[in-house]
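Notebook entry, structure prediction.
Reason for the run: the old model in the group folder had no record of what sequence produced it. Starting over properly, with the input documented here first.
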Amino acid sequence: MTIYHFVGIKGSGMSALAQVLHDMNYQVQGSDFEKHFFTQVALEKSGIKILPFKKENIHPGMTVIAGNAYPDTHEEIEEAMKLGLPVVRYHRFLGDFMKNFTSIAVTGAHGKTSTTGLLAHVMRGAKPTSFLIGDGTGKGDEEAEYFVFEACEYRRHFLSYYPDYAIMTNIDFDHPDYFANVEDVFSAFQEMSWQVNKGIFACGDDEQLQKIQAKVPVVFYGFGEENDFQARNVVKTTEGTTFDVFVRNTFYETFSIAAYGDHNVLNSLAVIALCHYEEIDAKIVQEQLLSFEGVKRRFSEKKVGSQVIIDDYAHHPTEIKATVEAARQKYPEKEVVAVFQPHTFTRTQAFLEDFASSLNLADKVYLCEIFGSARENHGKLTINDLKDKIPNAQILNEEETAILRNHEESVIMFMGAGDIQKFQQAYENQI
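New structure, fully documented this time:
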């Protein structure tokens, strides 16, 4: 039996895929840098072997799955090629693997991870389902009928996939180091649409998605009346959100979620629409929606002293706005404090004004130094360029997080896609 060896197993997609294969009784191991990464916790729990990179890890009889971050000149990939072993890139392997199931790709500029997690949770309540989420979580089921997975548009990686269904949450300009503008992003999603085999569930409130064309039915969901699946009578409380769903103007059911903000209603609506299409009992959908506990680093909360601390992956102005809105709904009486670490110089430069206006929705803003990527030329931009656009914003250093103690009884939101957690950790150690 072949051993699947993952080059770069700690990558979030790679670690999730390794867990899926392991759960389905395949032999799995992998290699990576020795630095601790949050995805390795689940791998270690599953007993999956993680080795430091070296060419001696590669032996005859292996199939090598290579992470997208590693070039063909990587010592392990070179060794595999020398031995004539199959070497398959992560997204190519995934594209072939999903052909064994009814596959559902979840894509969009924002909300992919949350929606994938929610869909997997709901579907598992009805049918055996394997899933792969971009937060590093994966679960395989030997009996699986469905495969739910997160499909990323960055560098058009999702064009390796030909899924049965696709959920498209929105189209927005992001990854300015790769995409030229929103039209370029749209063209990638349009190309992906031609590759879907059974149906697309798209947010009809998104003006870009309204233009999507496909050779399969496109079902629209959203708050607007022209949508096929529409949320009406939305009631927001500090406990969560309840709404009625109308299918082509006919009342279907009432659903409740223990989540906050309009974006979570839309994510739920996408899941409800797909489950309706696959004839999954509405009662199961209602129960599963209510019992969903969220995914990693998406509005992850903990109480520390008199403060509520939230860890969130928000790294784009649209996501920051949604996170602040959710905090306001759940904690209407509390001061909302944003601690934000911009992710990449290119993104910070491209969205400087938008970052300022979305962060201004918080009551107080602290900014951490920009988290650059290895591929970037930093140029002249600094964190002060953003600070200057936000009244009363302050720079936060890892050594001086104690200043956050001044915000008693408040909600402190640590947001970003870099290493913002080290600031949170430093603060928690302080108190």
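Summary: DSSP finds 13 helices and 21 strands in the chain.
The old model has been moved to the deprecated folder.
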